[in-house]
Amino acid sequence: MPNYRVKKTDYVDQTNRISFKFDGKTYFGFKGDTLASALLSNGIHLVGRSFKYHRPRGIMTCGSEEPNAICQINPGTDLTEPNVRATEIELYEGLEASSQNCWPNVNFDIGGINNFISPFIPAGFYYKTFMWPKSFWKNIYEPLIRKSAGLGKSPTLPDPDLYDHKHIHCDILVIGGGISGIIAAKIAAKSGSNTILIDDKNTLGGSTIFQNNENFKINDEISKDWLFKEIEELKKLKNLTIKTRTSVAAYHSYNYLLAKENLTDHLSKNNKTSNIRQRLWKIRSNKVIIASGAIERPLVFNNNDRPGIILASSVNKYLNFYGVICGENNFVFTNNDSAYETALSLFEKGIQIKIIDIRKKTNSKIVKRVEKLGIDIYWNSTVTNTFGYRKLNSIEIMNLSEDGSNVIGKKIKAKCDCLAVSGGWTPMVHMHTQSGGKLNFRESDQVFLPKELDSEHISVGSCNGDFELDDIIKNTNEKVKSLLNLKETEFEKTYVSCTKELDKRNIWLLPNKITLGKTKSFIDFQNDSTAKDIKLALREGFRSIEHVKRYTTTGMATDQGKLSNMHALGIISETAGVKMGTLGTTTFRPPFTPLTFGAIVGRNVGQFFDITRRTSIHEWHIKNNAKFENVGQWKRPWYYPKENENMHQAVQRESKAARDSAGILDASTLGKIDIQGSDASEFLNRVYTNAWSKLAIGKCRYGLMLNEDGMVYDDGVTTRLGDNHFLMTTTTGGAANVLSKLEDYLQTEWPELDVFLTSVTDQYSTVSICGPNSKKILIKLFPSVNFNDDDFTHMSFKNSTINNINCRIMRISFTGELSYEINIEAKYGKSLWEKCIEAGKDFNITPYGTETMHLLRAEKGFIIVGQDTDGTMTPIDLQMDWIVSKKKYDFIGKRSLYRSDTIREDRKQLVGLLTEDPKEILEEGAQIVSNISKKPVEMLGHVTSSYFSPNLNKSIALAVVRNGKKMKGQKLLVPMENKNINVIVSDSIFLDKENKRLNA
Amino acid sequence: MNNKYSIFSLIKNAFTQHENWQQAWGNPEPKKEYDAVIVGGGGHGLATAYYLAKKHNMKNIAVVEKGWIGGGNTGRNTTIIRSNYLWDASAGLYDHALKIWENLSQELNYNVMFSQRGVMNLAHNLQDVRDLKRRTHANRLNGIDAVWLNTEEVKKFCPIINTSPDIRYPVLGGTLQRRAGTARHDAVAWGYARGADEMGVDIIQNCEVKGIKRSGDIIEGIETSKGFIKTKKVGVVAAGHSSVIANMAGLKLPLESKPLQALVSEPVKPIIDTVVMSNAVHAYVSQSDKGELVIGAGTDAYVSYTQRGSHDVVEGTLKAILELYPIFSRMKMLRQWGGIVDICPDASPIISKTSIKGLYFNCGWGTGGFKATPGSGDLFAHTIANDEPHKLNAAFNINRFVSGDLVDEHGAAAVAH
Amino acid sequence: MFIINCPYCGERDQSEFTAGGEAHIERPKQPTELSDDEWAEFLFMRKNIKGVQFERWNHAHGCRKWFNVVRDTTNDKIHAVYKMGEKPSID
Q1: Which of A19, A677, A681, B197 could lock onto A754 through a cystine, CB 3.0 to 4.6 A?
Q2: pLDDT surpassing 80 at residue B216
Q3: Nearest C-alpha in A relative to C44
Q4: Confidence class of residue B308 from pLDDT cuts 50, 70 and 90?
Q5: C21/B257 Cβ within 8 A
Q6: What per-residue confidence (pLDDT) applies to B417?
Q7: Which chains touch C (3 or more CB pairs under 8 A)?
Q8: DSSP state of A497
């Protein structure tokens, strides 16, 4: 196997060999490698295929901007992950990776045929075709298009890893651990600020840490050596937290940032000490210093996408950081001085290197040095074509015309297996703009720079447009000083000697002899959008950068345009004759790099998806085989099947027992609000539709609450405990909303009322016992209480104790049976319940769930808010006129009852429905009509509640029906998919209309 | 005359390296006067102009757009199209739109990639079941193709959903509308723009409305960043900015504008071939033709024009996604964004005349306007041209907030004993 | 997620609060004397301002107090916070 590793490496440990697999084949790398550097050291360049044309693609960068080298990690396992950048994943023992978007393999990919039909599929081609014949769209075209979707494969197994969240507050957050971030963090921490420094790599130092070049010296030391010492000092600082392998994903307003820390992605299975894979840091920082650096730009020329064409700075990093040589016959192709560092590095290692520079000539220090060493430079030249299908093998060079708009002279063809390209630098202003910051455009080197308005954050270093070493140190020092209001720092007198760039020339789209339409000059490499696509979009009238981006899909790949946006803008600007500064850039949206769903969600999965509220009696329900229903966040027993019973059988048994002898229900989940104050009864007058002032102490009353728009909102029984003291019950699901609504009125509309509200839902458990034998059970439980009907009337309460524990016994009924509810401090709930069961044994006391409770109340025609109402029903619609006070001047929602639509007589109204066949049970939600044959079918209403009543031995239903009040006795139809059910409109009270059972 | 788009024109143009395609729509300066001006160049506004020109023969009209066409909610939504609404009025409105969608690519000669992959709505509690069944029955009687699926059928239709009974809010069933699906959002705006432009409609971008000029209760024209435009009819289709325009005319609307967020994952090979919506746990997901999972998040609960919601909303949505699709835990969010949606108290739109003669509003679409685009444009055009609503949008008049005759599409309140 | 300076508790994350819409829309004292139009104005019609808006917030996961906030709806910057019944420090 070939080996492209140099002998000595600083950051790769060549004594620690690691084996890994790529596309099923085993290779070796070293600790400190990324997958990309390890592949390159094995001579592997071709790692993937592009999205549209399936062109062979190689590693192009060494960071998060990588568009091509994206892989499926650990394919076929529960640890698989699609679209992982080979340039970011650290090598570990046993890592498996495979190339994506190719079949049968990356070397021979059937999809490569798209490259040959590419003349027929320009940008946006799909908008123009696949329309004829129409039937082909659904059956042929669309499935074909959808089949070609995607790059990697979604996992298909649940994730075995955990993720978590951590909140942190700090004075100063520094984003980026390059030279400017390190200086900033050091100044901040030393000045006493609680500082956090974050970097996405596993080591600090950015690109300066491998800048091994005599031309860059700080205090007379080579820059990398100086920086190395600074980092060592930095690590000793007390009030500084350094987070490596951590990338800032989003910068929200008020300096709220999200950063993802990788905890185990770089470790082999055996070395993982934690099962937390990633941690999301939620950071609130007083000030933020952005030092996120810059990304090198590629150059746009014909066939600029072949494996072996790599950013110049990346070639330099692979060599100086990882010790990997990207090619034997190297060319640097540049428009600026920075790539000359790459040339020097290669030369010093004895590797063949030549330079192509689009500039006419320049005499900066570093260029002179290169010339002195005898490295060939092709001035005023450009690459016009490249060759080699799976790997670059040669290039074609031509001279540029005076104005750079054309090529002239003879073509020179040269052997080349690594073309190191550099089109200048793009400051990473993502964080600045995400925070809401605006940008300025600097014409000289065509970069967008942060325009700083507030003092919440600053940008330093190359993300602020400082590209020269001396400027970086000087300006970073100055800006951080002023941010922190410092007089002086240790960096005041730092002496820098470095080369300075003297000449610039930028050509966004390099010219060619061939017409543009026949070239492939890529801008967005992953999505295969080319310069001619941009021009086509402009020709077709797409003027805005956002339109061009969307039409050509430029900048929408997994690198989110990090490499492509500026070129797209540049070409639009040149073609449309609009200055780039006025054209503006596209919006940079979070996250900066793709963020794992799991990390965003953290621990809030599975059982922690939502809070589960259980009553104190819950365990008893489980032991007694209850099936549960989710009601809001509460778990409520739904029914208690005995052996072999299905739900229907269980509910029939429970319902019958409750009416024949005794039933017991856990009613603890109903909302309870304690209301106190001298105006408590006036308050109730205003929030309920009925009158409350005259309710005697010790008495209970049912109340109906409306929304201000007149629609029924909640209901429940309220008890007067004292002169100025009430206990309100609400529906289970509505409790929280009712409380906040009441607080709202109290605090904002009626501040003059002396009333205090306290939620006591969780403080009390409620056990409800109903049925003709309920009184006997209560007497057994509370022998000292007088349960005589004259003394303890319906809708009243008494205080008592059980085993010296205070209880409140209310005689209220939601079933129509004689019924008592016992409130007790929640911690005694289960014990009370068990005592009730024990006391009720002789009376076949039967626990029943929500389903039976619903059935029993339906027999009596009692409504359930939210089931029989849907936010469109007034109390009048519910035929509950009796509860709407005519005397009261006002209550919430009263005015709305008199609007032109709400006073209509023929609104939908709550009625009973009986099926012609008493055994037929209607489906809840089924619609009701009078005439099914007339189209369109007029729907009169729907079935809201429906049950088979074992006590009446027939099916019963509640329904809302248009003009239902006047329809009693009328025959209607409930049309089902396969039949129509005959029904008769009835009274909504099916059982014991005279309320005899209440006093049974 | 624009080029006709077809496979043949693509092949023909390939031989000239696509140098001869004409612009899809022009870039005119505003004229001094129009017969009608549509404010807002989103899908709804462009469709309105298209149908005004096509069906009502109003050719001297303009669409003015503050930014770039299709740049508002048209380009920021999750592209779900369905018509399985509860009330007759809504079902009529949205199914009218759906029927137009079914032939829209051919009508516009622009492939809007309308994909009838079906939309499934899941039920997670007993009241959900009642509500969704109620809706399904109503849909069936209204001629809308909706069916109820039990949990097994849900699993069969979309195998990656976690239908285990042990999850916090298990899937108890769902409804499926097979004719429903998605479309390519940008193409809708572009297709209508191209069609309108071809009939002579002026599409004026980068033109912001600064004021509404009226004489008494009659419209006289609009002040814009490109000068005054005289017109007797102004149709406002400005989504989240409707109130801003209304305030210029001295009107108040029953709207609140809030950020609605959405996000996409990195692209992956086909894994989910339908649209699944879950109101109870709040998660919508489908997969785009590029392979990205397209996920709809909720709105923030406060008024905001910032086009960026709070992170909590995204976290909450992905939480629900992982509850229903645990296999997506290792997927990655590629991009998130927000749009400003204008929400009516009854969660239904307004397509209506106003108290000012010649001023019309089409707004209040909340989180679900994209699906209605063609129908909304058609009906709004009718309303503007005839100064009278079409019977399909009569219920969506602004006066319903006075009479109380709301079209409440919130569904039943999630309250139960 | 912005920060709200609760007049009772101090600075807290916005996620602790719930919004209550536009401020200073007083519930009519005599609703029965209003026309349907006037009632609808109170019930539903809102300025929905793009820019500086006076609005109500509730410290729902804190002291449960309602208060007023002056917030720019275009950038979430908060210009003032004041208690119910108080006058804002700015216009």
Answers
A1: A677
A2: yes
A3: A709
A4: confident
A5: no
A6: 35
A7: A, B
A8: E
Helix or strand or coil: residue A964? helix
Intrachain domains A665-855 and A905-986 with the same fold: no
To which H or E segment does residue B256 belong? strand B256-265
* pLDDT tens digits along A394-441: 999 999 999 999 999 999 999 999 999 999 999 999 999 999 899 999
Q: Please indicate whether residue A138 or residue B414 has the higher confidence score (pLDDT).
A: A138
Question: Do A598 and B330 count as a contact with CB atoms less than 8 A apart?
Answer: yes
DSSP state of B110: S
Task: Give the residue extent of every domain in chain A.
Answer: 162-294+427-498, 298-423, 514-587, 665-855, 905-986
Close Cβ partners of A934 (under 8 Å, ≥ 6 residues apart): none
CATH 3.40.50.300 fits A162-294+427-498, yes or no: no
* Cα–Cα distance list, A895 to A706, A749, A871, B75 (Å): 11, 16, 16, 42
Q: How confident is the model at residue B415 (pLDDT cuts 50, 70, 90)?
A: very low
CATH superfamily label, A514-587: BFD-like [2Fe-2S]-binding domain (1.10.10.1100)
Let me know: does A259 contact A243? Beta carbons within 8 Å: yes
- Check A598 against B329: CB less than 8 A apart: yes
pLDDT at A587: 78
**Tokens 């107090």 label which residue?**
C65
Asked if C74 has any chain B CB less than 8 Å from its own CB, the reply is yes
Which CATH code, of 3.30.160.70, 3.40.50.150, 3.50.50.60, 3.90.79.10, is assigned to A298-423? 3.50.50.60
| CATH superfamily membership of A905-986 | Aminomethyltransferase beta-barrel domains (2.40.30.110)
Interface test with B, best of C15, C48, C50, C69 (most B CBs within 10 A): C48
pLDDT digits (tens, 9 = 90+) for A592-626: 999 999 999 999 998 899 999 999 999 999 999 99
**Across-strand partners of A382?**
A398
Q: Which two tokens stand for residue A188?
A: 């901040």
Which residues of chain A have a Cβ shorter than 8 Å from any chain C Cβ?
Answer: 252-254, 256, 284, 436, 708-709, 740, 743-744, 747-749, 751, 889-890, 894-896, 898-900
CATH number for the domain including C33? Answer: 3.30.2270.10
pLDDT at site A1: 63
- Average pLDDT of the residues of chain B: 95
**Total domains, chain C:** 1
Residue range B187-197: average pLDDT?
A: 98
Q: How many Å apart are CA B51 and CA B33, to the nearest integer?
A: 20
- Whether residue C90 lies inside any domain: the answer is no
d(CA A472, CA A459): 11
**Are the CB atoms for B111 and A130 separated by under 8 Å?**
yes
What is the rounded average pLDDT of the residues A95-121?
91
Domain that residue C66 falls in: 19-83
Q: Which residues of chain C neighbour B239 with C-beta distances below 8 Å?
A: none
pTM over 0.90: yes
Residues A600, B146: Cα–Cα separation, whole Å: 35
Instruction: Kindly list the distances between the CA atom of residue C16 and the CA atoms of A756, A785, B319, C71, in Å, as whole numbers in the listed order.
Output: 22, 46, 19, 17
Q: Tell me the mean pLDDT in the region A7-29.
A: 95
Which residues of A fall within a CB distance of 8 Å from B12?
none
Burial call B364-385: b when 16+ CB within 10 Å, e when fewer: bbbbbbbbbbbbbbbbbbbbbb
Superfamily of domain A665-855: Probable tRNA modification gtpase trme; domain 1 (3.30.1360.120)
| Cα–Cα dist A832/A616, whole Å | 10
Which amino acid makes up residue A817? Answer: E
Q: What was the pLDDT predicted at B413?
A: 33
The residue with greater pLDDT, B9 or B281, is: B9
Report CB contact under 8 Å: B406, A872.
Answer: yes
Query: What's the mean pLDDT in A646-656?
Result: 98
Reading the block at residue B258, the tokens are 């809030």
